[in-house]
């Protein structure tokens, strides 16, 4: 998950530099964007929404503690979903060509039930 965040930030910085826009406004917008369908990075780190150019009520700018259980549940769901869709078997080596082949396991969706998207 950290690798994905770093890639997102790099792409964001590259785009803002190419468009000759303010890097700090782009980072501020990223910090106020919800991740994993729950909280924003600023809410996770500082328990508040940062003031930016989006219209907000005064009540939204008041610091509020996040619900740790909800955050950890959403994080676990995202990890489980990622783990499910990237499952691979151990790498097997062909003795003749010595090339590594990944064999993807296709599990029956019925045993996992309906996955929410």
List its traits.
about 120 residues; mainly alpha; about 50% helix
Plain-language structure description:
Helix content is 50%, strand content 3%. By secondary structure, the protein is mostly helical. It has one domain. Strands 1-2 form a two-stranded antiparallel sheet. The longest helix has 18 residues. The radius of gyration is 20 Å and the shape is flat. About 19% of the residues have low confidence.
The ordered H/E elements are HHHHHEEH
Tell me the number of strands: 2
Please count the helical segments. 6
Mean pLDDT: 76
List the domain count as a whole number.
1
| Beta-strand residue fraction | under 5%
Strand order of the largest sheet: 1-2
Helix content: 40-55%
What radius of gyration results from the CA coordinates? 20 Å
Report, as a whole number of angstroms, the end-to-end distance: 18 Å
Which structural class do the helices and strands define?
Answer: mainly alpha
Low-confidence stretches: 89-110
How would you summarize this macromolecular structure in one to three sentences?
The chain has 117 residues and is mainly alpha-helical. Helices cover 50% and strands 3% of the residues.
Give the SSE map.
Layout: H1 2-18, H2 23-31, H3 41-46, H4 58-61, H5 68-85, E1 92-93, E2 100-101, H6 109-112
Antiparallel strand pairs: 1-2
């Amino acid at each position: 998950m950290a690798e994905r965040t770093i890639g997102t930030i790099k792409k964001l910085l590259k785009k803002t530099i190419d468009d000759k826009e303010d890097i700090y406004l782009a980072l501020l917008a990223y910090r106020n964007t919800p991740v994993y369908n729950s909280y924003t990075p600023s809410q996770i780190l500082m328990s508040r929404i940062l003031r930016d150019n989006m219209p907000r009520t005064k009540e939204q700018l008041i610091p509020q503690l996040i619900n740790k259980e909800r955050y950890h549940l959403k994080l676990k769901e995202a990890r489980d979903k990622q783990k499910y869709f990237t499952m691979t078997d151990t790498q097997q080596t062909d003795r003749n060509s010595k090339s590594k082949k990944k064999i993807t396991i296709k599990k029956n969706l019925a045993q996992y039930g309906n996955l929410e998207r």
